[in-house]
Specification:
246 residues; globular
Length: 246
């Protein structure tokens, strides 16, 4: 089975670039996209992440602007919320999950370690999770908890890629042009493709600015680089204007 990924832009935000590039680019403003990703081509309608309404996201990112509601975004590709079969949540930060409550017919794929972290986060990064919101929402959803790598359907596999969060998962999708990886952590293209002449603390990558374990995040980036033919960094703004991948 060969799939096509369709970016669905939900909101856009303006942030300091240092949030995406660890110890670099302080004072430089960039725009990010917050997306849901439709995987089209099989006999199931599969979504990666759901995005977040701007009014909720504005509570922690003041510049959030709505592009589509999830319902509108799905309609733009001919899908309806009630038709979604599977939702894969890369991780449980609010900007990736808040529209989940609209997809009551879907099965949600979540790493058990990520859920356990989200409902009992370490004090060092508890601000990344809205614990009560997640508990309340998950009680109303059909959740399948998994541990580590797993093929969900033929040609679509999740791969545990911790570091940004303890249980982040990257989605590997077979396409006509090879394996597409939708990253399980917040990043932009520069993280995997540093501009010529730019070196961060790592010679190979620019490490994303938000992480709970920098070594695990580096190793996760290395795993993705090794297995993927096309890497989709989940916040890169260029996907606002791209209808399909590849």
């Amino acid at each position: 089975m060969k799939y096509v990924i369709k970016p669905i832009p939900i909101t856009k935000v303006r942030i300091d670039k240092s949030i995406m590039t660890y110890l670099m680019n302080f004072g430089t403003s960039i725009e990010l996209g917050i997306f849901a990703w439709a995987i089209d081509g099989g006999n199931k309608k599969i979504l990666v992440d759901t995005g977040c309404p701007a009014e909720i996201q504005s509570s922690f990112t003041s510049s959030a602007k709505q592009i589509f509601t999830l319902r509108e975004g799905l309609a733009s590709i001919g899908w309806k919320p009630k038709e979604i079969d599977i939702v894969i949540l890369t991780h449980l930060h609010l900007d990736h999950i808040a529209y989940s409550k609209e997809l009551r017919n879907a099965t949600f794929i979540v790493q058990r370690k990520e859920y356990e972290t989200a409902i009992n986060p370490h004090p060092a990064y508890e601000g990344f999770y809205n614990t009560e919101y997640i508990k309340e929402m998950f009680e109303k959803l059909n959740i399948e908890y998994i541990n580590g790598d797993k093929e969900l359907v033929k040609g679509i596999t999740v791969m545990l890629t911790p570091g940004h969060t303890p249980g982040g998962q990257t989605i590997l999708i077979e396409s006509e042009k090879g394996i597409v990886a939708i990253t399980g952590f917040c990043c932009i293209k520069e993280n995997f493709e540093p501009p010529k002449g730019i070196r961060s603390i790592s010679r190979r990558f620019i490490i994303p600015g938000i992480h709970v374990n920098i070594v695990e995040l580096y190793e996760s980036m290395s795993k993705i680089k090794e297995v993927a033919d096309i890497i989709v960094p989940i916040h890169d703004y260029t996907y606002m204007d791209i209808s399909h991948i590849p």
